[in-house]
What we know:
This protein is of the alpha+beta class and 247 residues long. The chain folds into 2 domains: 96 residues, Alpha-Beta Plaits (2-Layer Sandwich), CATH 3.30.70; 106 residues, no CATH class. It contains 4 helices and 9 strands. Strands 1, 2, 3, 4, 5, 6, 7, 8 and 9 form a 9-stranded mixed β-sheet that branches. Strand 4 and strand 5 form a beta hairpin. The longest helix has 13 residues. The chain is globular and about 55 Å long. The C terminus is likely disordered.
Amino acid sequence: LGSLRERWCVALKPPGFAGAAAHPLPSLEATLTPFLPEGRSMSFPVKPERDAEGLVVVTTDDAMRKSFDETLRRGLVRCRYRLLADVASPGEIIGTAELVESGQLRAEGTDAETFPFELYSGPLACPSANIRTALYLVSARPSTKAARQVRRSFASAGAPVMFDPVYHPLYREASRSAKSLEDMTSAIPGSLTMQLFELEMPDPFRPWEMVHIAAPMPQEWLAIHPLAELEGDEDHACSADWLETSK
């Protein structure tokens, strides 16, 4: 949404990318800087989760950054995460009844915060591996801390996010040892299946209007969790007009 010629825009960050430049890691800042108008400075009001794909607000001047900071402070930015959870890896994880239906999931390690979630699809068997996955939509604050809490809470409830190198037992073991995923018969390679896919916030220039921004489900996920309504849908693939926006 928008472009770097304007005072703010929204980018879709690939998994594994940091927000600010973080050599030797790939980053949005390093990728977008060549397209930034001279005299502008780039910033990210919400530090994105590096492991996950997701929408990222980019500001290009100090006044707009302060405006977004105030909007966030007042709790006026709403977001939802799309995540693909492993609900039945053989011999490892058995998803609990807590996640069978939509409801509220309490944040691990805190007595205050809960995450409303919706079971969107599944559980479904993966066509190429002996696992079952479920697709969830989760409401949470737009922050790296909240995203981590969601990942940790789903893992504690018996449904870790697929390919999570921190909270999924199989992938945590692979990341901490010399084992390759090929040596672990119940693991398959891939990037973290968590995506900040939806943002709703006041228009910075017309604050009485709300802007709704949504990104499509990554095509790569369909190999693990096939959805009939999306398979073979070329229009669903990310392209120059990957965002759906409304006011």
